[in-house]
Amino acid sequence: MHTIFQLFLSFLKIGAFSFGGGYAMLPLIEREIVTTHKWIHYKDFIDIIGISQMTPGPIAINSATFVGFKTYGILGSLFATLGVISFSFLLVSLANHYMKKFKESKVLEFALKGMRPALIGLIISAFISLAKQSYFDIKSIIIGVLVMALLLSKKIHPILVILLSAVFGILFYG
């Protein structure tokens, strides 16, 4: 049996140990919410990621809000969202206070340089995990390739990409 406090603690852990933004958090969210606690099914997780990308705001906060709502309603949304932002809020508050002192620190510079490749690894891991569930037939692969080609060649806006993907889905699957 899970509790709303466990939900808060799970998202606190996700927020505390995820660096590099929402996409880097996805593997941790998946492991904690889908695999460990089984609060939602993987299909629901993918849907939540899609909705989180389409709604305004950071994907990690949106994901926490949606997962919280799915598990405990409005109160769950509040606890999950507070959990995911609490550590960052404290860290940014402390960093702001001490940043001037350590601004020229080589140790901090080297630590940040070391974290960058790890962040890319986390994002690639999230991509692979989502791709395994999202590319289930030739039509979904075609949509993915078309969207990637448009993004790389035309630099079109992500909202337009989402709308085009919906149109492709209606045309291919409707």
From TrEMBL:
Its main location: membrane. The chain crosses the membrane at residues 7-29, 72-96, 117-136, 156-173. Keywords: Cell membrane, Membrane, Transmembrane, Transmembrane helix. GO terms for cellular component: plasma membrane. The keyword Nuclease does not apply. InterPro entries: CHR_Transporter, Chromate_transpt. It is a multi-pass membrane protein. It comes from the Bacteria. The keyword Isomerase does not apply. It is found in: Cell membrane. One of its GO terms (molecular function) is chromate transmembrane transporter activity. Belongs to the chromate ion transporter (CHR) (TC 2.A.51) family. This is Putative chromate transport protein. It comes from Clostridium acetireducens DSM 10703.
